[in-house]
Amino acid sequence: METEKRGVVLREGFLVKRGHVVPNWKARWFVMMPDKLLYYKYEGGRRDSCQRGQIPLKDCEITCPYLEHENRPLVFKLRTKNGVDHFLEACSRGERDEWADGITTAVNKLQTDGGGTVANQQDPCGVHLQSVNLSKVLESMYDVHSGINMNNHVEHGSTYSNCFSGSAVVDWLVFMQLALTRVDAVTLASALLEEGFLRTVGMKSVEALRTGGEQFMDDSTALYSFSDSLKKRGIVKAETSLSAVERSGEVIKRGFLLKQGHRRKNWKVRLFVLRSEPAFLHYYDPTKDDVSPAGGFSLRGCLVSSLNDNGVPLGVKGNVQGNLFKIITQSDTHYFIQAPTQQDKVDWIEAIREQT
C-alpha cells in the first residue's frame, strides 16, 4: 500500500468526474485517504504530480446509484458538508459499489472518531424498504420523466427494443427509495413479474423463469420489459446488424485503461469492454457514454504481449507511467495500452488471451 504525503492510501483508480463550471465529464485518477478524496489528471500517459482537487469526506452524504444522468447508470453522487455536489462515474457496477462502500466506511469512521455515533449504518447503495402498492410502482416506472429508461439491447445477435436489464430495474428501485438493499429490490421486482406487470425478454430471463431458478435476475444481461398490455413508450433507434453482432457477446471484463492514438500518438483514458462469443474488444470515450464505441476489433487471431517498462519500447511515444502491453490484430494493427497497475496488466492480458 502506497503512502501519499498526508496519510495512508485506502483506494485509488480511475473515475470519471463531472465538472463544476463546465458540466463536461473527464477521467481523473482518484486517491482515497481516510478523510478526503484527491484527484489528479493524466498528461501524456503519466499521472500529473499536481493535485487537481479534493473532496472532504467528513459529514459527506453519498447517493448510490444516482440515476439522473441518462446513459450513465454507474454514477454516484457525493454531497459535502458545505452542500457541494460531486458526480463520479465508475467503470462497472462492482467498481461503483466498492467505491461507495469504501467512502461510506470512511465517512462513518470520521463520525465515530469525532465523538459522534452513526445512527444508520446501511448499505451505501440502499434506502429503507417501504410498503408499496405494485400498481403505483409500475406507474412510477412507466413515467416518461422519472421512470426507467428503455433502450435497445442485444442478446446472442438478436436486438430487443424498448426493454431494460434486470440490474437497471434494481438500480432504479433502490434510487427511488423503494428498497433498502438490492436483495429487497429483487423481491419487489419478482412481485411485479409474478403479477404480470413486467415480462421476460430474450433467452436468459425466459430460461431462468422456465426452469424455476431465480424469478427475477439482478443481471445486466437478463432482459425485461413492460407487459404487452401497456403502450410502448418512446421510439428506440435500431442498431446496425454489424454492431449488434459485435456487441452480442457476454461481457467478460470492463475497466479504464490508457490507449495510445494511432495518428497523434497521444494517450487517452478509455473504457475497455471485453466480450466473448464473438470475442471482441471495444473501447469507449468515457467523457461521452458506453453506448457507441469509439473503436474496437475482433480478437480472432490477435497476439497480446507484455512490454518491458525499462525504457520506451519501439512504437511507444511519451513519458509513460508503465504497465504496458501490446495487442496486434489479425490485420497487423498495433494497439499500445497502459494498465493502472501491474496486476491490472496481468489480469487484462490473461483475459484477452483466453478469448484469442
List the helices and strands and how they pair.
Layout: E1 3-4, E2 7-8, E3 11-18, E4 25-32, E5 36-43, E6 46-56, E7 61-63, E8 75-79, E9 85-89, H1 93-113, H2 134-142, E10 151-155, E11 158-165, H3 166-175, H4 182-194, E12 198-201, H5 202-210, E13 223-226, H6 241-246, E14 250-260, E15 267-276, E16 280-284, E17 295-298, E18 303-306, E19 324-328, E20 334-338, H7 342-355
Antiparallel strand pairs: 1-2, 3-4, 3-9, 4-5, 5-6, 7-8, 8-9, 10-11, 11-13, 12-13, 14-15, 14-20, 15-16, 16-17, 18-19, 19-20
Helix pairs in contact: 3-4
Task: Characterise this structure.
The protein is of the alpha+beta class and 356 residues long. It has three domains: 3-113, Pleckstrin-homology domain (PH domain)/Phosphotyrosine-binding domain (PTB) (PH-domain like, Roll), CATH 2.30.29; 134-226, Arc Repressor Mutant, subunit A; 241-355, PH-domain like, CATH 2.30.29. It is built from seven helices and 20 strands. Strands 6-5-4-3-9-8-7 form a seven-stranded antiparallel beta sheet, with helices on one face. Strands 17-16-15-14-20-19-18 form a seven-stranded antiparallel beta sheet, with helices on one face. α3 crosses α4 (182-194). The longest helix has 21 residues, at 93-113. 35% of the residues are buried.
